[in-house]
Amino acid sequence: MISKILIANRGEIACRIIRTVKKLGLSSVAVYSDADANALHVNMADEAIHIGESMASASYLDFNKVIQAALVSGADAIHPGYGFLSENAGFAKACSDNGLNFIGPPEISIEAMGSKSAAKEIMQSAGIPLLSGYHGDNQDPDFLQQEAAKIGYPVLLKAAAGGGGKGMRIVESADIFHEALAAAQREATNAFGEQLMLVEKYLLQPRHIEIQVFCDQLGNGVYLNERDCSIQRRHQKIIEEAPAPGMSKSLREKMGMAALGCAQAINYVGAGTVEFLLDANGDFYFMEMNTRLQVEHPVTEMITGFDLVEWQILVANGLPLPVQQDQVPLMGHAIEARIYAEDPAQEFLPQTGQLEFLATPAESEHVRIDTGVVQGDEISIYYDPMISKLIVWDKDRGSALRRLTKALSEYHVAGVTTNISFLHTLSKSAGFKDADLDTSFIQTHSEVLFASKNENMPLLLAVASLFQLQANQQSSKAAANDPYSPWAHSNAWHMNEPNQQTLNLTFDIDSDLAQDGTTFCVKAEHTGDNNYLLHSELGTQKVYGTLTSTSTGDQISISVDGRSHTLNIARSSKDGTVSNKRGFTIFIDGTSTKVHLTPLEIGSADNAADRAGLQAPMNGKIVSVLVQAGDIVSAGKGLIVMEAMKMEHTIKAPVEGKVLQFNFAPGDLVEGGASLLDFEATEV
Fold this sequence. Notes:
By secondary structure, the chain is of the alpha+beta class. The protein folds into 6 domains: 4-103, Rossmann fold (3-Layer(aba) Sandwich), CATH 3.40.50; 110-131 and 206-330, D-amino Acid Aminotransferase, Chain A, domain 1 (2-Layer Sandwich); 133-201, ATP-grasp fold, A domain (Dna Ligase, domain 1, 2-Layer Sandwich); 332-451, 2-Layer Sandwich (D-amino Acid Aminotransferase, Chain A, domain 1); 454-597, Glycoprotein, Type 4 Pilin (2-Layer Sandwich), CATH 3.30.700; 608-681, CATH 2.40.50.100. Helices cover 26% and strands 32% of the residues. The strands form 9 sheets. The chain has an 8-stranded antiparallel beta sheet. It has an 8-stranded antiparallel β-barrel with strand order 24-25-26-27-28-29-30-31. Helix 4 (89-97) runs antiparallel to helix 5 and helix 12 (397-409) packs antiparallel against helix 13. The longest helix is centred in the last third of the chain and has 23 residues, at 457-479. The model is unreliable at 511-515, 574-581 and 601-612 (pLDDT under 50).
């Protein structure tokens, strides 16, 4: 029987596995790279072993190092989590060869599903419905383009290995096929080590429905209901829910039995997920099978009451499944939102930086948070930028959705741009409330999801002004020997002159409330204890309020023109401290807004290259340059390709103009904000 488990992973999934290992009274071993030396999963485990440099290829993806760590620690089993080595048949075999129990399916099952093209051939033989496409070995670009023409555009290019939306491109027409193919192959090679691609018909506006299956070593298998994973960006899920809205009992049973058929076709053991595309007519088509625990497994746990990691360990020990199919419950509704360090306003580009401030909603039977970070941790370029998974549950979808919206409004992060504001807006949108779901939901509803919310600006300005005034006052009083002396107050007190201060407040907004860098000049007139008249370009506001400082942040109670609000604020600075009065973040209505003082004399013209958007949008690596210095290019022409966290981003010409010179070469690492190239716009 298993007694000591090494977790061959990091972040939130490693922490999640460790919790169940501890619950079962077993011992846990963590592994870590240079970047993760002080990570949460390292501190949670009973012991931890260093396995290499920060790059995943030199640590978490090097299964020889992982195997050696397991042997040195005396572990008798390895849990791979998801990602990294979880679907590597060679790793599963290496575990077996070294006498280690691999908590996952047999290597032959992993191998069968490891290639999407081979998987589709198996499923076709098993009678599982498939979309039309080419899944062969001929990878000649011209041949693949011919196959795409036979299928009919639009088509989907998809890496045969791996998953997670990497190595995928939608191709609308033949003229962009080669460019899209090259990009998908680069991304696939970087993420999975091979560039084999398949081409299949792209189904317009389908739903993404997946079935959780579980099989033991004795031939028993069950499906644990379904999940709707249609809300995606970059072909990656950000919202998952169970059960799927509008799913009939008969369709659930039909898809569930088909999923079990997939598992039985490859003699599957353990936790697996079969993914389908579902069209408006109720017809479904096999996409792929993930031979591992899925990121979104918590929503299945919430509606069944089962601990799937515990099941994995039981099955690995050779024990039977705890229930039969007719004993699988379906209780209420659960929704998971993935909290990422990314910028939705910039095509969801991954972001890096320090979590200067982190406060989460309280956990309960209705709210669960799976995370692998704490305040002060760094979101680096080396790994997926997920901060946590926020999971909510209630008796029905409407109630669960209300809990999701509230929990997102209570999730506060400062120091790095996140998708929390976007998720909050999405959760309140009519389309999502009405379950108008398909894989193009974000594009279809972009006007609503990315709409400006300038109506909050007056409140933001009032809160920022009052906070700055009272923070200044607190600081001055603390530094004075006599807190009641007028010299202890930073309120512009001058004998025989009006009691007035001038503040220049700059708002760096990641939530579309206004443009980044919007600066307001506020003249604050002190009219009594905690009372002010604020004069700005937005008009005059009558403000009263108090500031309460705690170890977990600041809370401000404010009345603006007779309307009361209570909001949370985090003090932050560029060096990562949470004590600098000149920088702070306001959390309001699910959004976060960074505010800082700027000198009154500030004012300089923006750099033309900045306006052109030719700065690096993120920390990352230059993959390739697409044109040459001296070229005249049209607006929208791709100029340079960057990669971060195994995802590519193409920098395009904002207007027609001339490329003067490149400041970096392929392979160079660049910091976000660096000027990538010199560009001269064509004179109109």
